[in-house]
Amino acid sequence: MTRLMPVLSTLTLAAVALLIAPSAEAGDTCTADKDTSAKAGSACTATLQAVPASRDLPNIVAVAQSAGSFSTLLAAAEAAGLVEALSGPGPITVFAPTDEAFAKLPAGTVEALLQDKAKLTSILTYHVVAGSMPAAKVVQQVNLPSLQGTDLLISKTANGVSIGGAGIVQTDIQASNGIIHVIDSVMLPPTQDIVATAIGAGDFSTLVAAVKAAGLVETLQGPGPFTVFAPTDAAFAKLPKGTVETLLQDIPTLTGILTYHVIPGSTYAGSLSNGLTATTVQGTDVTFDLTNGARINNAQIVVTDIQCTNGVIHVIDTVILPE
Predict the structure, then answer these.
(1) Alpha-carbon distance values, 305 to 47, 79, 312 (Å)
(2) CB-count exposure of residue 170 (10 Å: 0-12, 13-18, 19+)
(3) Quick one: which of 237, 251, 98, 103 has its CA closest to 180?
(4) What is the pLDDT of residues 173-199, one digit of tens each?
């Protein structure tokens, strides 16, 4: 599905500047107890040395300029009017795409973004986290809140560490006002809410029809955040014949079933644990089982962490029914 950011107002730019002003000093607490070695991305093995940023070093913009491999990023920051903010006292952590990372985008994308300040600003601030976050701390997280407002998901595999789908290929480049981690792809924030994402996927026609019948569309388009365990059309088809049609005529029961699939807040796959219980919007609990894959009650979780502007969707293969 298309991943382009909605328009941000001038107030958003002001908020960005405030977020990376000296009030973010609390991020200075993100230091490591000891050096850690980890494989980062697929391109290199980095030694994660959490050294506090020295005020004698150049700022983040100056460090990026001297590196010589961030020309596109710097041009984008200038076009978005963010150079002054990124040069401020901070501290901030920047996940910086290289020129090669920008070159991976479809032809014409960078040029179009340079002419669209709102979308460009949204994408760039999606690469920035408040506070000083060394690599040793990053790898301990499930997600990090970006200054754009959407969470960045951290993934740790045998191939290395990634954030927002981008491989981290170099870590802990120190600057006077924070830290730079180099990534191999440009990260694009989600642009659609939960309902629009489900409609666009094409596998949730029954779920969408049920949500509309229950009058829950507006709620699931709201700010949230929500975590939705979304049964596919095939999952609904497993119910006894006539069940769906009956439920569409019984709005209270339908609403109870649908809200049983929703948990308040954003719950990502990396935060699940075996035996964990969570209270649904419907009011009763669901239980997670990680002994053989990941299950919620009797349903297998088949796809995880589909990010939306107002939460996250996990796809399940069975409709779960409250007791």
Answers:
(1) 29, 32, 6
(2) buried
(3) 98
(4) 999 999 999 999 999 999 999 999 999
Name the band, by pLDDT with cuts 50, 70 and 90, for residue 117: very high
Q: Are 275 and 289 in contact (CB under 8 A)?
A: yes
Higher confidence at residue 27 or residue 77? Answer: 77
CA distance 234 to 281: 24
> Does residue 16 contact residue 126 with C-beta atoms inside 8 Å?
no
Q: What's the pTM value of the predicted model, to 2 decimals? A: 0.78
- Please check whether residue 74 is in contact with residue 114, taking contact to mean a CB–CB distance below 8 angstroms: no
The dihedral built from the CA positions of residue 48, 49, 54 and 58, taken in this order, carries a sign that is negative
Q: In the numeric block, which tokens belong to residue 323? A: 């007791």
pLDDT tens per residue, range 234-257: 999 999 999 999 999 999 999 999
Q: CA 135 to CA 180: how far, in whole Å?
A: 10
Backbone angles phi, psi at 161, to 5 degrees: -115, 135
- Distance between CA atoms of 169 and 133, rounded to whole angstroms? 16
Residue 166 burial class via C-beta count within 10 angstroms: exposed 0-12, middle 13-18, buried 19 and up? buried
Round the average pLDDT of the chain to a whole number and report it: 85
Rounded Cα–Cα distance for residues 316 and 176 (Å): 46
CA atoms within 13 A on the CB side of 206: 18
